From TrEMBL:
NCBIfam families: EutH_ACDH. Keywords: Oxidoreductase. CDD domains: ALDH_F20_ACDH. It comes from Alkaliphilus flagellatus. InterPro entries: Acetaldehyde_DH_acetylating (IPR013357), Aldehyde_DH_dom (IPR015590). This is Acetaldehyde dehydrogenase (Acetylating). GO terms for molecular function: acetaldehyde dehydrogenase (acetylating) activity. Residues 22-274 form the Aldehyde dehydrogenase domain. Its EC number is 1.2.1.10.
Length: 511
């Protein structure tokens, strides 16, 4: 009975938040660029003041990741994001083509719904709050139950900072009792204009099934190919820095390393030197039994954990200072569990003959994270262009996937919602930004006379239409016409009309 009452309360809360959020969003739609910038600056200031405390809360509540890395995530979601979008035009006239006389005008969508994952709870809440306000939208969050406290704190800080700077109350809010019923209520609520879904495949699929626009992301399973021309020391350093960043909780992080036979020994030696531990076949099996349940579904107990925690639980001994656990694999699929996504400090390792085999293997691996991300370490630009054809929305070169994919170490826009395109069942293939949260109206002036579009167009030349042209003097269509099936030349049209008139007069005379 208590559970039923809780569900009912959570649904009612969702309805109230949607109603109040819609009112606030309608008010924010009239704000000027100056007002929005003032609000954003205050939100970024407050976020910066709390990046460390929020990171501590997230690690303490979820057990995932590392405080220093979650701090940097919060910094990315606020300071770095703002620097990237502050000059972005999202209000009023955002573009004008003088020659074509077309004007693009940005309009907000209204009230958004933001789904927050447990792996990046505070950074995602900050990120989505800022891009929502930048595009003059309100947002209401559905937090992951296992990260409720830290998400609510982040949302509260963003709301209060926005209101303090002049935003309407309730412009940023969150469900305080997350239930499936409340989340579904928000997804389908008439006042929600769009859903921004960051989370597991089930939640993303539900978002796209809610009957309204949604921005969702798919699972990642990023392969990292170290090609024969690569700077191996640098490649290994980037891969380890990426895979250990927040203990592998970013979905863009490397899941497999691919090397060639010609550089295998050098890569293996460098990985060992920099803290990689190559597990035996038996140790790999033990670790896989811990990491996965129900096939290749990641066990939440080992998401974002250190190699030491995983090794101890698996009953294996690893050297002091180990940073990542590496398991050699001979194929892709159910029999090779490490060929799937692992949001922790464990990575698969493959050896191929050449780039052709690396290409085929990358495509196979990407089928389990299709459309997301892959990385390539090479000094050969032609090789980069060959691998740019792979089914991934982000092809990263000579950088770590986690930092590169989210825009921390590349020129991509900082984002914690990474689109996977139609490959991964996503409506967007880019890093989601404020530009994805606006409607664009186009004002278009007439450039041509509608009456003479065809006649004034020299490219409109179709001789077969000659029989359908209308004679402006006679009104006769084409070269001839017909009367009761008898063809009549247009030149005799006047005689025909006279004959008809004589017949009419004769008929009247009879009467």
């Amino acid at each position: 009975m208590e559970s039923i009452d809780r569900d009912l309360r959570s649904v009612q809360e969702a309805r109230d938040l949607a109603r109040l959020g819609k009112i606030a969003a309608n008010q924010l739609a009239d704000y000027t660029e100056e007002q929005i910038n003032k609000i954003l600056c205050n939100m970024v200031r407050v976020a910066k003041d709390n990046v460390v405390s929020l990171a501590k809360m997230a690690v303490e509540e979820t057990g995932f990741g590392r405080v220093e890395d979650k701090t940097y995530k919060n910094h990315m979601a606020s300071v770095m994001l703002y620097d990237s979008i502050k000059d972005m035009k999202t209000i009023g006239v955002i573009k004008e083509d003088v020659n074509q006389q077309v004007i693009d005008i940005a309009e907000p969508m209204g009230l958004l719904m933001g789904i927050v994952p447990s792996t990046n709870p505070t950074s995602t809440a900050i990120f989505k709050s800022i891009i929502a306000i930048k595009s003059r939208n309100g947002i209401v969050f559905s937090p992951h139950p296992s990260a409720l406290k830290c998400t609510l704190k982040a949302v509260s800080l963003m709301h209060d900072a926005a209101v303090e700077a002049g935003a309407p109350a309730n412009i940023i809010s969150s469900i305080s009792t997350p239930t499936i019923q409340a989340t579904n209520e928000l997804m389908k609520h008439n006042d929600i204009a769009m859903i921004i879904a960051t989370g597991g495949p089930g939640m993303v699929k539900a978002s796209y099934s809610a009957g309204k626009p949604a921005l969702g992301v798919g699972a990642g399973n990023s392969p990292a190919y170290i090609e024969r021309t690569a700077n191996i020391q640098k490649a290994v350093s980037n891969i380890i820095a990426s895979k250990t960043f927040d203990n592998g909780t970013i979905c863009a992080s490397e899941q497999s390393i691919i090397v060639e036979e010609c550089n295998r020994e050098e890569v293996v030696a460098e990985l060992k030197k920099q803290g990689g531990y190559f597990m035996t076949a038996e140790e790999t099996i033990k670790v896989c039994k811990l990491l996965f349940k129900n096939g290749h579904t990641m066990n939440a107990k080992f998401v974002g954990r250190t190699p030491q925690v995983i090794a101890e639980a698996a009953g294996i001994s690893i050297p002091e200072g180990t940073k990542i656990l590496i398991g050699e694999q001979q194929g892709v699929g159910e029999e090779y569990p490490l060929s799937y996504e692992k949001l922790t400090t464990v990575i698969a390792f493959y050896t191929v003959k050449d780039w052709h085999e690396a290409c085929e293997l990358s495509i196979q691996l990407l089928q389990n994270g299709i459309g997301h991300t892959m990385s390539l370490h090479t000094e050969d630009r032609d090789m980069v262009m060959k691998f740019a054809k792979k089914p991934a929305s982000r092809i990263l070169v000579n950088t770590g996937s986690a930092q590169g994919g989210t825009g921390a170490s590349t020129g991509l826009i900082p984002s914690f919602t990474l689109g996977c395109g139609t490959w991964g069942g996503s409506s967007v293939s880019e890093n989601v930004s404020p530009m994805h949260l606006i409607n664009i109206k186009r004002v278009a002036y007439g450039l041509k006379d509608c009456r003479t579009l065809a006649s004034a167009d020299s490219s409109f030349n179709y001789p077969e239409l000659n029989n359908y042209k209308v004679n402006s003097e006679t009104g006769c269509r084409g070269a001839s016409s017909s009367l009761n099936g008898v063809n009549i030349d247009c030149a005799d049209n006047e005689k025909l009309l006279n004959l008809v008139n004589e017949l009419v007069k004769a008929m009247k005379g009879v009467n």
